[in-house]
Amino acid sequence: MELHGITKRFPGVVANKDIELKVRRGTVHALVGENGAGKSTLMKILYGVQQPDEGTITVNGQAVALKTPTDAIDAGIGMVFQHFMLADNLTVLENVVLGAEKLHGIGDRARAKIRSISKEYGLDVDPDDLVEVLGVGARQRVEILKVLYRGAKILILDEPTAVLVPQEVAELFDNLRELKAEGLTVMFISHKLDEVLSVADDITVIRRGTTVATADPKTTTARQLAELMVGSALPNPSTEESTVTDKAVLTIDAVDLDGGVGQRKVLNNVSLTIHAGEIVGIAGVEGNGQAELVEVIMGMREPTSGRIWLDDKDISDWEVREIREAGVGYIPEDRHRHGLLLEAPLWENVILGHQTQPPNVKGQLIDAKAAKADTEAIVHDFDVRTPSITVTAGSLSGGNQQKLIIGRELRHQPRVLIAAHPTRGVDVGAQASIWAIIKKARREGMAVLLISADLEELVGLSDTLRVILRGGLSAPFDPDVVTREELGAAMTGADGHGHGEQEDTK
């Protein structure tokens, strides 16, 4: 597949400019670049979601016009998105054939085809399994199987390791090597440069909308890639000397959350204390209670039993607004669903969650002038790259959206910061900036609960580490001595410990 002179303009922005890309058949080709560099736009063009203003795309030497995803699929191009698109209440077979019923029917022929593809490419997927019982790694293999079932010969994988533990990453890379061996071509988009170097045959670097370099993973280091991407060295998340005090700021005491009739507890006897100047990291495979723990702390859900204390105040049954006003900051897991109004300007987004607090209000009314001045300060202090505070939040890159949210929360100087996946889907430059912000907040005495799927981030930033599995917390791990493998084993239950009954609390 080759791309020549691909250019895509939006009002006020050139997203792609003269992109040149050559992808060899039967290889893993990695695409790296900062948030806002134009990777997402380029992938949307390749998958027919958007059309280029200029340039040509050829597949197997033939020029193709990709006006819809159907055109892309017909050309043999399939895409596996970062956020899975599976129906939990359906089987693997039902998910795979949905929308492709004409290919092999919906019964035995389809089942046989799925088994054949699964065996051929080492995917280890049973067509009769319910999706809801599958782990994250297995779900991803189902997504890959969906595009193979539709005849894809070129697979685009968008941040495929974002939600995987180390063991699942290793399995995915084995799958990619199998796909490659069978003659398929994989485009691999990732911010994790060590992973790119381990799995890619070729690397293309995009900066500011255009291709700036190609790199050979055999002779290129992560540091060199980072410099090509952002003009700076690869960041290190490591904390400095301990700033942990003996002042307990947030205390979670024996919290349970029922999962409904006939369901296991979503949270099981969770106890946790975070002190001023301390970062407590929570590691875990998604779906083990992380999101519910955050919701309980923030007042979105009330615990079935147990209590939550902010200093000496019991906040277990407080409303979200009361908890916010009491000094709890919140960086949500999904910035688009829970953090921003994408169609609203930046200054209105800065008011979100703080609409009852200065400087956003004057009496009973919103103070637009003060909110705009506050937004200008956030843009300056947190390096949010934007032409104006009046542009929509949706027009910013993911990294800049994230810095806007973090700036919004920290401007109110919270006593506790709940940070759920604060660097998910951001490039190494934005990641370094966010790490520095979190470390500075810690030094200034803030208590931080850090939930992340990035083990390097957790080990590097946390003073104490816990693993959440099936709603229960493990005993504390020391980030200075724990290995990624030990954490990965605890996250999947391979260490032999179920965490419903805690061995220890801190």
Low-confidence stretches: 501-506
Number of strands: 22
Distance between the termini: 55 Å
Structural class: alpha/beta
Shape: globular
Spatial strand sequence of the major β-sheet: 6-7-8-3-9-10
The CATH class label of the largest domain is Alpha Beta
- The domain count comes to 3
Helical residues, percent: 25-40%
Strand content: 15-25%
User: CATH-wise, what's the superfamily of the largest domain?
Assistant: P-loop containing nucleotide triphosphate hydrolases
Stated plainly, the CATH topology of the largest domain is called: Rossmann fold
For the sheet with most strands, the description reads:
6 strands, mixed
Mean pLDDT figure: 87
Number of helices: 18
Radius of gyration: 23 Å
Please state the second-level CATH architecture of the largest domain. 3-Layer(aba) Sandwich
Textual characterization of the structure:
The protein is of the alpha/beta class. It has three domains: 2-230, Rossmann fold; 242-327 and 414-506, Rossmann fold, CATH 3.40.50.300; 330-406, no CATH class. It is 33% helix and 23% strand. The strands form five sheets. It has a six-stranded mixed sheet, sandwiched between helices. Strands 16-19-20-13-21-22 form a six-stranded mixed sheet, with helices on both faces. The chain has a four-stranded antiparallel sheet with strand order 2-1-4-5, with helices on one face. Strand 21 and strand 22 form a beta hairpin. Helix 15 (398-410) packs parallel to helix 16. Residues 501-506 have low confidence and may be disordered.
